[in-house]
Amino acid sequence: TRDKMPPLKGDILVHAEESKEGQPIKISDLSDQLVRAWPMGKGEDGSNVIRKGDPNNILALYRFPKGQIVAPTVLEATVDGEVVAYSDVCTHAGCSVADSEQGDGMKCPCHSGQYDPKRGCVVIGGPPPRPLTQLPIKADGEGLVVTDFFIKMPYPYQHEAEWEAFK
Ligand code: FES
């Protein structure tokens, strides 16, 4: 069913947090603190369908001051280099990744995998085998719209040092 489909072009992003679930994300809702979102598309009858039937569709959104988001983030798939969307599903064993309490990027609560959301969610610590996948988005007024499938990259690097050597 459509609630299990992956994010599709044209889907809008809505809040995933229970108190606001289904409310469209506004760019002004976002900051350097993680906001979780679901893609929402249309059902067969034209009604809105939040695609939360597949837990792999959960997304992590951030908004950073201009210039802070750099490669390997695909800047063309962000909003003005400031707003970025990633899969929130840890590439190690699928836990939902959160903000690190130390303020240094994202940390997975399960086995302490760490990612840098300003650098394409490259792995900066722990066991994850590859970065969190970026989802291409654009602005639509105050809101956010999906523009393509998750970005498939060859990921010739896993950890920070390998990315530094690769780039
Ligand atoms: Fe995230 Fe293991 S599931 S580090």
Task: Give an account of the 3D structure.
The chain is mainly β and 167 residues long. The chain is 4% helix and 28% strand. Strands 1, 2, 3, 4, 5 and 10 form a six-stranded antiparallel beta sheet that branches. Strands 6-7-8-9 form a four-stranded antiparallel beta sheet. A two-stranded antiparallel sheet has the order 11-12. The longest helix has 7 residues, at 160-166. It is globular, with a radius of gyration of 15 Å. Residues 90, 92-95, 108, 110-111, 113, 126-128 line the site of FE2/S2 (inorganic) cluster (FES).
List each distinct ligand once.
FE2/S2 (inorganic) cluster
Question: How many angstroms does the end-to-end distance come to?
Answer: 41 Å
Rounded mean pLDDT is 93
The tally of beta strands, per DSSP, is 12
User: Which structural class should the secondary elements be placed in?
Assistant: mainly beta
Radius of gyration: 15 Å
The parts where pLDDT drops under 50 for at least 5 residues are none
Hey, roughly how much beta strand do the residues contain? 25-35%
What percent of residues adopt helix (DSSP H or I)? under 10%
Question: If helices are DSSP runs of H or I spanning 4 or more residues, what is the number of helices?
Answer: 1
Write the element-wise H/E pattern from the N-terminal end onward.
EEEEEEEEEEEEH
> What is the overall silhouette?
globular
